[in-house]
């Protein structure tokens, strides 16, 4: 999957005979000695904080540690708000910002819906699933395209239940709905007895997101190693998974390396941060940046220096008790492979990422 993320920015701009190549947006950049992601972001986006946009688009080369940058790497730079221009492999830069598409309209179900593959998601998980977003969010569009590609004979329907706490129990566990998305996956190879590993089966990853540590600019801290977390108080909203704080031998929660506060919402976590009650907030990159902008905290809250807390894939899941669950997952995965092969996946991802990053 990592090879696919950002692939659309490598399409060549058209060349007309007798004329120079069209001015492109995005494209490829060869890393030079002395480069860092922040320096590259500052040069091409005029915003050093967009280093994470470069990192996430090049996870296949860089890996989880952004310091693994090496001279000679050929990085993909997304087109963000008309920048950068003049790079090889750029797409033709739009003359105007992308127009906002109409929000999703959800059709009501009926008796025939029960015979379909019924897919469960929820709102307010921007930019992945949100009825106010174009196509219902980036991953809703991916799922819709993948299922249309396989065109299962019984059909399919996507249902919205905004109470995420009800998704595993009782909706999926009782087969009231068949499969659900998007879910982060714990490290089941290391800890197979966790509730989500014991009860759910996962598809391959649809999209990978950086899980970042957001800190107060007036009380900066960095995350380079586990030692940096010793004695810190972190915040993660109630109901959000916390496995990334313990996986990979980390055991921050299990051994008391950190103290964790779990208020009701991301906004409440950010309030605790600026009031000095926590040292950092752990959120996925897009949710964190979106809430910071919504609350007007851009001058106060920043991404911690160092590296992400983790890189998490987003998955389709089915409850292990569902008799047709593995077959339904297989239908979805065939469709996902098809839209990745023919370029539709990349088109969906890049269209959403351009809107998302331009909005920051």
Task: Explain the layout of strands and helices.
Elements (H helix, E strand, L loop, with lengths): L23 E2 L1 E4 L6 H9 L5 H7 L1 H4 L11 E4 L13 E2 L24 E5 L16 H13 L5 E5 L4 H8 L6 E6 L10 H5 E3 L4 E10 L5 E2 L9 E3 L23 E3 L4 H9 L5 E5 H10 L6 E3 L1 E2 L3 E10 L5 H18 L1 H16 L1
Parallel strand pairs: 5-6, 5-7, 10-15, 11-12, 11-13
Antiparallel strand pairs: 1-4, 2-3, 7-16, 8-16, 9-13, 9-14, 9-16
Helix pairs in contact: 1-2, 4-9, 4-10
Assembly of the depicted chains:
single chain
Order of helices and strands: EEHHHEEEHEHEHEEEEEHEHEEEHH
Discrete helix count: 10
Structural class: alpha/beta
Give the domain tally. 3
Number of strands: 16
Distance between the termini: 25 Å
Rounded mean pLDDT is 87
Keywords, separated by commas or semicolons:
D-Maltodextrin-Binding Protein, domain 2, single chain, 16 strands, disordered N terminus, globular, two-stranded antiparallel sheet, 360 residues, Membrane-bound Lytic Murein Transglycosylase D, Chain A
Short summary of the structure?
This protein is of the alpha/beta class.
Task: Describe the protein in words.
This protein is an alpha/beta fold. It folds into 3 domains: 7-92, LysM domain (Membrane-bound Lytic Murein Transglycosylase D, Chain A, Roll), CATH 3.10.350.10; 122-207 and 321-342, no CATH class; 209-311, D-Maltodextrin-Binding Protein, domain 2. 28% of the residues lie in helices and 19% in strands. It has 10 helices and 16 strands. It has helices spanning 37-45, 51-57, 59-62, 138-150, 165-172, 195-199, 266-274, 285-294, 325-342, 344-359, and strands at residues 24-25, 27-30, 74-77, 91-92, 117-121, 156-160, 179-184, 200-202, 207-216, 222-223, 233-235, 259-261, 280-284, 301-303, 305-306, 310-319. Strands 5, 6, 7, 8, 9, 11, 12, 13, 14 and 16 form a 10-stranded mixed beta sheet that branches. The chain has a two-stranded antiparallel sheet with strand order 1-4. Strands 2-3 form a two-stranded antiparallel sheet. Helix 4 (138-150) links the parallel strand 5 and strand 6. The protein is globular, with a radius of gyration of 21 Å.
